[in-house]
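User: quick one, sequence for these tokens?
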């Protein structure tokens, strides 16, 4: 007997996908972000992919996250079990940190703060991954692995940028003339 995909399932999947895919906060549009990366960041980091790759990668990764949580929620409720509070809180916290990263990095250009936010993204992603395994949600577990792996790489890139990209001098106010 095959699984059915109801109108309610589609509505829940679409709502979660919108939550995952729709950006919020200030920040920068993708064209500005690509140009900034290409001119100011990419020349300084050896293991950074070309700028065009990020949009494709995040599209795929967010799709994996959406699929993982949809599969988990759907199968968990079908089994008659409650979704654990810890998993939901970690998932939403992770999503919040993930959504804050781009405006901090590209909008405010606070690379050290963005690198620390990237740490928080990974720190909240790993327990979600473990809980999916503990719950034996193997499809969700497998789909979510791509997100954890890409997030670990993003943390590496964020700290590479902090350590290797030259800081622009800060303006210190008007210059005084010595008399």
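Assistant:
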């Amino acid at each position: 007997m095959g699984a059915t995909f109801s109108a309610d399932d589609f509505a829940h999947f679409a709502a979660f996908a919108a939550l995952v895919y729709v950006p919020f906060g200030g920040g920068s549009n993708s064209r500005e972000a690509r140009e900034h990366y290409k001119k100011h960041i990419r020349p300084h980091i050896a293991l950074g992919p070309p700028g065009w790759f990020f949009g494709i990668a995040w599209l795929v990764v967010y799709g994996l996250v959406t699929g993982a949580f949809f599969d988990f929620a759907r199968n968990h409720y079908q089994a008659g079990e409650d979704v654990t509070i810890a998993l939901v809180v970690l998932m939403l916290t992770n999503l919040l940190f993930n959504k804050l990263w781009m405006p901090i990095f590209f909008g405010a250009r606070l690379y050290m703060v963005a690198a620390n936010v990237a740490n928080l993204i990974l720190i909240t992603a790993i327990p979600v991954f473990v809980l999916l395994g503990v719950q034996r949600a193997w499809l969700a577990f497998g789909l979510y692995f791509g997100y954890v792996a890409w997030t670990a790489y993003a943390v590496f890139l964020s700290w590479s940028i902090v350590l290797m990209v030259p800081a622009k001098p800060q303006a210190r106010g008007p210059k005084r003339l010595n008399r």
